[in-house]
Amino acid sequence: MFHQFHLKDIILLAIIGIVFGVIYLATGLLYNGLTIALTPFGYGPMANDITLGIWCMAGPLAGFMLRLPGASFLGEFLSAVVEMLLGDQWGVTALLSGLVQGIGTELGFTLTLYKIYNWVTLLLSATTTTILTFAWDWFRNGYSHFPFSMLIVMLIVRWLSMFFFTGVLVKLIVNLLNRSHVLSR
């Protein structure tokens, strides 16, 4: 699966991992602030769904930049490793989340057999990541205890977060990199 990676691909993955590990660490502050702001209204748990798209950006970006099987997973997982090593509030569970998020983002690319790199791929990746991470949070964070109506809202909010951050923003970043000829192989 990873036999096609060259040294420049590994270096790019490391850079993505470091940059997004720092972004993910900072996202924890946003998450905490949103949790505090939403809790009095009964929506504190939704802070996770609002911010989760940010925590999943490295995978689709790596997948689009490298266009190799496994790149999306590795980009996401390496970012989680860096986030944990920087001392985030979740400790080693950040690795488990990175694993789930990496599998979710990679599935979107897998469904296109690594041949299509456009909005379809980003939409698939956002959707598969939404489904896998929501299932993960169902068990890890006790989502099964929420009313059905709140679960539906949380799922929609999570998908919108994924679509905006892992779709729209990743596509804008890739377009800028393409225009500056950074991604020409």
Can you tell me about this structure?
With 185 residues, the protein is mainly alpha-helical. Helices cover 72% and strands 0% of the residues. The protein is built from 7 helices and no strands. Helix 3 runs parallel beside helix 7 (148-179), helix 5 (93-110) packs antiparallel against helix 6 (119-140) and helix 6 (119-140) runs antiparallel to helix 7. 38% of the residues are buried. The mean pLDDT is 94.
Q: Can you give the helix content as a percent range? A: over 70%
Major sheet attributes: none
Question: What's the tally of helices?
Answer: 7
Distance between the termini: 20 Å
Number of E-state strands = 0
Which residues sit in consecutive blocks of at least 5 with pLDDT less than 50? none
SSE-based structural type: mainly alpha
Strand-residue proportion: under 5%
N-to-C SSE series?
Answer: HHHHHHH
Seen as an oligomer or otherwise, the chain set is single chain
C-alpha geometry: globular
Radius of gyration: 16 Å
Calculate the mean pLDDT score and round it: 94
